[in-house]
Amino acid sequence: MTHAFLDLPPLSAVHFAAIEDRVARLLDTRQDVVIMQGEALLPLEGAIRATAAPGTTALNVITGPYGQTFGNWLRDCGATVIDLAVPFHTAVTAAQVRGALAEHPEIDFVSLVHAEAATGNTNPVAEIGEAVREQGALFYLDAVASVGAEPVLPDAWGVDLCVIGAQKGMGGPAGVSAVSVSERAWARMAANPNAPRRSYLSLLDWKERWLDGGRKALPHAPAQLEMLALEACVERIEAVGLDTVMARHRSAALATRAGAAALGGGLEPYVYEAGEAAPVATTLRVPAGVAASELVARALESDPGVPLAAGGGALAKEMIRVNHYGADATRTAVRSSLAALGTALAGKGLDVDVEAARQAVESAWR
Prior knowledge:
Elements: H1 2-6, H2 13-26, E1 32-36, H3 41-51, E2 57-62, H4 65-76, E3 80-85, H5 94-103, E4 109-113, E5 115-116, E6 121-122, H6 125-135, E7 138-142, H7 154-157, E8 161-165, E9 177-181, H8 183-190, H9 203-211, H10 224-240, H11 242-263, E10 268-269, E11 282-285, H12 292-302, E12 308-310, E13 319-322, H13 331-347, H14 354-364
Parallel strand pairs: 2-3, 2-4, 4-7, 7-8
Antiparallel strand pairs: 1-9, 5-6, 8-9, 10-11, 11-13, 12-13
Helix pairs in contact: 2-10, 5-6, 11-13, 11-14, 12-13, 13-14
């Protein structure tokens, strides 16, 4: 089996371009799509460094840790950054974005995370896109977690730079990622003397050496296995239908919320409003006096296969993530996760009803 992997013929430019076209169809976009040969942080950082510079005024929406990272990169590029931060248990509203844009008419760049897997919220991109279009600003979207779990429509929403990864909702590899780029975004990059060139971060290199040449010769050796894994993953989504894959994630999220409420033991949804909760992962607040990281460790002892994690950083004390994405967007994964949490909570002397949770998962799943 190992030999089969090592003896693969080189990935041709034609094959590479065909995979890009399939990703473009998945996003229903007519924009240029570039598949970058690294984890999604590569295009996320590359797109900001290509378009932001001294003189840029950016509205950076913070609904979780990634928004904070984008603000740091923007400042590093010399941009003036206006942060719009909302509590992590909510989503940002289009009205809040409109208010910030009205207050700062000089804003010409808006950065937003669609779904924050780390905090479990999802933002109303279509409505926000409308406000950004009226402002005439460039719209940068991190759709890494959301793609495959909920609609991601760069053209319909007026997104100029839409970054996706395959490792969450799509259930694919983490080692390659993609970005769709509008004509406006390419023009902004071309006019930016600070945009990376002759660099692994450079989107302009991909444009000049790949797209402008008619996608005939790859700029460097592709990550062959990851590209083939991405192709297989998109093929699988095409076979069952993107709507079916998204519906499975939506069902998993609804069932997890319902099951956690029925389980008891003091667990509560971390994102208050169900409409603001991401279909890719459900976050839960643990009861007072219980450390989330310790609860997750106990749950994993009882069932090592469940997709549970404690929140990152300061959230490790209070938040649990049920990562029901990709292959784990199933009734079994949700039921098992809640059963394992029930065992861990019962071990803390808390009152839980695992059977009620199981029944709630069944009736909520649709």
